[in-house]
Sequence to fold (484 residues):
Amino acid sequence: MRTYEVRTYGCQMNVHDSERLSGLLEDAGYARAAEGEQADVVVFNTCAVRENADNRLYGNLGHLKPVKDAHPGMQIAVGGCMAQKDRGEVVRRAPWVDVVFGTHNIGSLPVLLERARVQQEAQVEILESLEVFPSTLPTRRESAYAAWVSISVGCNNTCTFCIVPSLRGKEKDRRPGDILAEIEALVAEGVSEVTLLGQNVNAYGVEFGDRAAFAKLLRACGGIEGLERVRFTSPHPADFTDDVIAAMAETPNVMPQLHMPLQSGSDRLLRAMRRSYRSERYLGIIERVRAAMPDAAITTDIIVGFPGETDDDHRATLDVVRQARFASAFTFQYSPRPGTPAATMSDQVAPEVVKERYAELAALVDEIAWDENKKLVGRSVELMVAEGEGRKDGATARLSGRAPDNRLVHFAPGDEVPRPGDLVTAEITYAAPHHLVSDIPAADLRRTRSGDAWEQRQSDESCGTGPSSSGAGPVLLGLPTLPA
Ligand code: SF4
Fold:
């Protein structure tokens, strides 16, 4: 049996696409390569958003050339946003690559691999746009208890720093019935947390003419029995409407958590970024979210050093951060992305200035996050136990879990050790800037069907009848986010 490995770069959309690539390959008869073993097929699912993405891709492909030379029959495939962007350039710069496929045709991978093998010739297949929403592709999910569910792909906005619209195309919305059917099937398999994925979830429904579709979708998720937690990413402040806040607040399994990209606190820069909201609107949404859900944790993305950013612009961002009191923030130092309008703007900010502003912003974000975390000391929270080994501090063995607001909590288990996907209640005893600790043994263990599913997976793996080791599942605070 030929083995495969998928290497993923970038945001949650790519993480989920990689689950689909794995599912497709397993359906076509491939098996996941064991840890440390050289796979017969290596698939790169690439990202064009992160800095130096092309250097990294071509560097990695260069490292694989001697490996491929030493393994007759090995194949290399490159997909994702870099493939969509570079197309034939990939096989020109790395002629030992066998397959290049784009963001709109991930379903073609097994056929292209086979064709490349039979014809002994590189196959490059890039589609310009998505024809049908890829609802029916098989998926090899990384987590037994949490799952990504795509609700839309592509984006109709034109933010000047972002390459997504040209690589993922115009927004395509998936029909609500397909989404809900997928979630119901996941719950039947033991999943109890889903994260709805889209480049701009607040625009969901625009394609089929229903601006209230996202709020309706959240409420419909509330009616799915056995679905404990619903999250979503990423919302866009320009399209955020109050019906979504009401749906969040009134649907018990929609978690009190909002990751909403700010990008800049300066209205002048938001205009230059072609972001159509202003800081006042952004802060207004936060105020209304907190009025409806006082315990909501709000997180964000911020770009530092966008072309033309002045000290005043930077101060405006710091000011919004102080008012918004984020539970955490992904802060990025701006660097030009070829193919975006911002890359050719003449007033790029000097790297040393960007570094200085970035350090100042990161320190402020950490200070506020720590203050916000300290407010939780003494409170009890329900945790969904996460996969992985947990954390060992000195003599205390701790497990990890996520609170409803998605905060990471390292906790001491009670007498009975919970399984990933189970629920426990823990009292917070200590706060750090990026996590919380509970050293009082957790109580109220609720053994869930997700925990059963995780146990079943473990036993299937140990007798070789199931997929190999499971990953960490959706962990929003630990992953780069979608660039909405
Ligand atoms: S940053 Fe987000 S909203 Fe803007 S173009 Fe990119 S994906 Fe769309």
